[in-house]
């Protein structure tokens, strides 16, 4: 009888505390467990609570894991599966101890919950000695859990249940009185009244006239004391309200002039704001006009760039038939033909209407090895060629990437001395990005010229020694693919080109 009272009493005491506790959003397993329990499917609910505990524990959410684990434990011993219940509690304690982010106080509060479940099992199994030992452990955890004030209150509840269950009514009455005192001091009179009424109802159902009389007398005595206390508090409250109202009236009388001043100040501020809005409107109009001019200038530059690209392409196209008639074995003629071809390619890349090549899936390792083999006849003796690429596929624009890597590898072969190294490497940087890296141990490119190598027509050159358009064309192709081509500034033992692409 008293056990039922205390259960109801403490549920009211800690309902508000539990409702306000900060929690991580419930995961899918916990939601399914609660749904199964609501439908009375306790075995399925127990299984899902265990899965939820394991999921929370793996994610480092010890508090939520303990909540689900103890619910699964309760479902175990509800069916007298004590061995499984004790085993699960050991796992929960190990999870709490493994939490490196929780403080000693937080861990003690969580260990208190597992100890409470053990006490419930010992109580159900009628093992008074084991239950008494478990109460001592709970009290030790409660004293350590200084950050959770609800633990000490719950400890009183568990003690009361234990004492009444094993016939220690005097101790049970003492703990109950302590609980009533705590609720009374916090002015939770309704909960105390409901608790006494439940105790009286339990006595009537059990046919215990002595218990009913004792509970009723205790309730009446408590109510009389609370009534007197309440009346005193109400009188004090009324006096305080009267004093507050009088002070409010005095404040209102003295604030009329202040409000008048505030109104005048607001009018001045409104005038200032209106003037500021006018000035702001003028500034905004000027900004809009400047923005339109800039947009028109950008549009004009784009159109000029397109015309320039078209002009260069026309020049290359007109030169091509005449150049084809000349002897291509003459170095100067070959250089001129290459120059015309490079100009035409560069013009196509500058054309904004050019549609980029579509990507296709290629086997990365064979693709890289084929390019390396192409330059093998061009390298100096003793130069080591190496491919670093996994056996996997990647989506690339084959023609553009082949052209870029072939040019970079040819340059590396030309500038790498005997005994040097040339490496072609592929890396997957993220789900949507990848890199091709070409590195050599040649003389390198000076830091002040690294940006210029990607700019066309910076200097007049002897075409027989190269037109300097190879790298600008490669960079244009990289940008057409939505990527970029650059020189790694951190590489100091030669040159490393980095081709960044999206997948």
Structure description:
By secondary structure, the protein is α+β, with helices and mostly antiparallel strands. 69% of the residues lie in helices and 9% in strands. The protein has 16 helices and seven strands. The chain has helices at residues 2-20, 28-38, 42-59, 62-77, 82-98, 104-124, 128-144, 150-165, 169-185, 189-206, 209-254, 256-324, 331-350, 364-375, 398-415, 470-480, and strands spanning 360-363, 384-388, 393-396, 421-430, 433-440, 484-487, 495-502. The strands form two sheets. It has a five-stranded mixed β-sheet with strand order 2-4-5-7-6. The two termini are 71 Å apart.
Summary tags:
503 residues, alpha+beta, five-stranded mixed sheet, two-stranded antiparallel ribbon, 16 helices, 7 strands
List the helices and strands and how they pair.
Blueprint: H1 2-20, H2 28-38, H3 42-59, H4 62-77, H5 82-98, H6 104-124, H7 128-144, H8 150-165, H9 169-185, H10 189-206, H11 209-254, H12 256-324, H13 331-350, E1 360-363, H14 364-375, E2 384-388, E3 393-396, H15 398-415, E4 421-430, E5 433-440, H16 470-480, E6 484-487, E7 495-502
Parallel strand pairs: 2-4
Antiparallel strand pairs: 1-3, 4-5, 5-7, 6-7
């Amino acid at each position: 009888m008293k056990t039922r009272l205390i259960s109801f009493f403490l549920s009211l005491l800690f309902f508000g505390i539990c409702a306000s506790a900060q929690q991580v959003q419930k995961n899918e397993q916990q939601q399914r467990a609660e749904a199964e329990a609501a439908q009375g499917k306790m075995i399925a609910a127990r299984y899902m609570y265990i899965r939820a505990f394991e999921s929370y524990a793996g994610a480092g959410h010890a508090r939520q894991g303990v909540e689900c684990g103890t619910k699964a434990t309760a479902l175990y011993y509800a069916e007298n599966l004590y061995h499984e219940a004790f085993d699960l509690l050991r796992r929960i304690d190990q999870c709490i101890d493994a939490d490196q982010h929780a403080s000693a106080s937080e861990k003690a509060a969580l260990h208190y919950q597992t100890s409470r479940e053990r006490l419930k099992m010992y109580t159900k199994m009628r093992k008074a000695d084991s239950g008494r030992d478990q109460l001592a452990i709970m009290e030790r955890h409660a004293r350590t859990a200084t950050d959770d004030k609800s633990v000490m209150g719950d400890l009183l509840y568990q003690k009361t249940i234990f004492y009444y269950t094993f016939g220690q009514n005097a101790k049970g009455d003492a703990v109950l009185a302590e609980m009533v005192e705590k609720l009374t001091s916090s002015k939770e009179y309704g909960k105390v009244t409901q608790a006494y009424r439940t105790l009286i109802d339990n006595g009537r159902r059990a046919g215990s006239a002595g218990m009913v009389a004792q509970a009723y007398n205790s309730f009446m005595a408590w109510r009389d004391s609370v009534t007197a206390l309440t009346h005193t508090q109400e009188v004090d409250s009324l006096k305080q309200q009267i004093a507050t109202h009088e002070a409010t009236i005095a404040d209102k009388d003295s604030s009329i002039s202040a409000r008048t001043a505030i109104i005048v100040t607001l009018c001045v501020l409104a005038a200032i704001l209106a003037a500021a809005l006018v000035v702001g409107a003028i500034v905004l109009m000027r900004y809009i006009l400047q923005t339109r001019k800039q947009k028109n200038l950008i549009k004009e530059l784009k159109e000029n760039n397109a015309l320039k690209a078209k002009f260069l392409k026309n020049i290359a196209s007109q030169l091509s038939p005449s150049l084809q008639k000349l002897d291509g074995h003459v170095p100067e003629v070959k250089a001129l033909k290459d120059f015309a071809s490079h100009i035409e390619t560069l013009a196509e890349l500058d054309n904004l209407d050019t549609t980029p090549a579509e990507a296709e899936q290629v086997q990365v390792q064979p693709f890289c090895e084929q390019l390396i083999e192409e330059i093998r006849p061009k390298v100096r003796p003793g130069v080591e060629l190496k491919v670093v690429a996994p056996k996997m596929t990647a989506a690339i624009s084959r023609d553009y990437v082949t052209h870029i890597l072939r040019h970079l590898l040819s340059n590396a072969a030309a500038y790498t001395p005997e005994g040097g190294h040339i490496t072609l490497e592929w890396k997957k940087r993220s789900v949507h990005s990848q890199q091709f890296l070409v590195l050599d141990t040649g003389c390198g490119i000076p830091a002040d010229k690294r940006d210029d190598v990607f700019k066309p027509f910076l200097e007049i050159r002897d075409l027989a020694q190269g037109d300097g358009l190879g790298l600008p064309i490669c960079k244009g192709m990289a940008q057409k693919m939505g990527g970029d081509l650059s020189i790694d500034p951190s590489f100091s033992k030669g040159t490393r080109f980095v081709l960044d692409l999206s997948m």
